[in-house]
Specification:
This protein is an alpha/beta fold. The chain has two domains: 204 residues, FAD/NAD(P)-binding domain (3-Layer(bba) Sandwich), CATH 3.50.50.60; 103 residues, 3-Layer(bba) Sandwich (FAD/NAD(P)-binding domain), CATH 3.50.50. Helix content is 22%, strand content 25%. It contains eight helices and 15 strands. Strands 1, 2, 3, 4, 5, 6 and 15 form a seven-stranded mixed β-sheet that branches. A five-stranded parallel β-sheet has the order 7-14-8-9-10, covered by helices on one side. β4 and β5 form a beta hairpin.
Length: 326
């Protein structure tokens, strides 16, 4: 099969690009190693978006939700509906292994795909490839002993499994704070460890007073200016203001952020800044230094994932589509 465009990544930015491209009359295939908006599906079930529903819309399809700030379930249903109603051709459980120029001299690329269920490998061709792989699949590792133990995770799900336990949360931004509050409200004993002097400035404004009061009332234990040294089966060793503290716990959530897969970009031939992780690209068209290879979504911002959200990443597809038809 040969397409005008293959989109790697079925997040909101990738789906937005696919919709815009299809409306231009071009053939497009969307690939993802998981499902549609799989990153959002991995968010905690109780998560509420900071953005309002109108700012999460793609391809001019209205996002109707029961409240101004939609839930994770609202978003998953919306993006799945957009993809289906838009007739987007999508292949899930399809991990892209490589993207290489076709050897027949044609101006196109051969995309190698591995089926994550059957391990079968196939190839498809496209004149252009858009890489929109986001960052949520790649957690920032602590690099400490014990990080691979079964009682530690870089992704928070739900509190029920931890009732009657003590849980340590490493981090001080939205994901860490929301997890701490969710666990606390379900009767879980929570301790928060953060390397900063205070909680992150990006914490949602309606959540910050809540968690600050829980910490002030000692309902959630908090260690600021702390750096984790080791993780054991039932405790975390941390340097807290220069003093080693032993913190007893049954489970650890290391919610320290995520980063883009810049190695994949480099394998494709895209130049990536060593310090910022920003791929070399035209800011107007989002075409990289490799002709016919485009980037979209949060991966555009490199390691600074707070610059590109759904509300501005969704605009990349429009620029790419205009560039393609030109």
């Amino acid at each position: 099969m040969k397409y005008n465009v293959i989109v790697v990544g079925a997040g909101p930015a990738g789906l937005s690009a696919a919709m815009e491209i299809k409306r231009k009359g071009l053939s497009v295939l969307v690939l993802d190693k998981g499902a549609i908006v799989s990153s959002i599906q991995n968010f905690p079930p109780s998560m509420i978006f900071f953005s309002t529903s109108d700012l999460l819309e793609i391809a001019c399809v209205p996002f109707i939700a029961s409240s101004p700030h939609p839930t994770r379930a609202d978003a998953v249903n919306y993006y799945a509906r957009v993809a289906k109603s838009g007739g987007i051709e999508f292949k899930g459980n399809s991990k892209v292994l490589s993207v290489n120029p076709n050897s027949n001299g044609a101006n196109s690329y051969s995309v190698e795909i591995k089926n994550e269920i059957t391990s079968e490998v196939n190839f498809v061709s496209a004149e252009n490839v858009i890489i929109s792989t986001g960052f949520y699949d790649n957690p920032n590792m602590l690099g400490v002993r014990g990080e691979t133990l079964p009682n530690i995770s870089h992704y928070y799900n739900e509190p029920g499994r931890h009732i009657g336990q003590r849980v340590a949360i490493i981090g001080g931004k939205n994901s860490a704070v929301e997890a701490a509050l969710d666990l606390y409200r379900h009767g879980v004993d929570v301790v928060l460890l953060h390397r900063g002097e205070a909680l992150g400035k990006s914490v949602k404004y309606w959540i910050l007073p809540d968690v600050e009061n829980r910490i002030k009332n000692k309902e959630i234990a908090a260690y600021f200016n702390s750096r984790v040294l080791e993780i054991h089966g039932d405790e975390v060793l941390a340097d807290v203001k220069g003093k080693t503290e032993t913190i007893k716990c049954n489970f650890v959530y290391a919610l320290t952020g995520y980063h883009p897969d810049v190695n994949f970009l480099r394998e494709v031939g895209v130049e990536v800044d060593q310090h910022t992780g920003v791929p070399k690209h035209d800011p107007k068209t989002y075409e990289s230094n490799v002709p016919g290879i485009y980037i979209a979504g949060s991966i555009v911002a490199g390691y600074d994932c707070n610059k590109i959200f759904i509300e501005n990443g969704r605009e990349h597809g429009k620029a790419i589509a205009e560039s393609l038809v030109r």
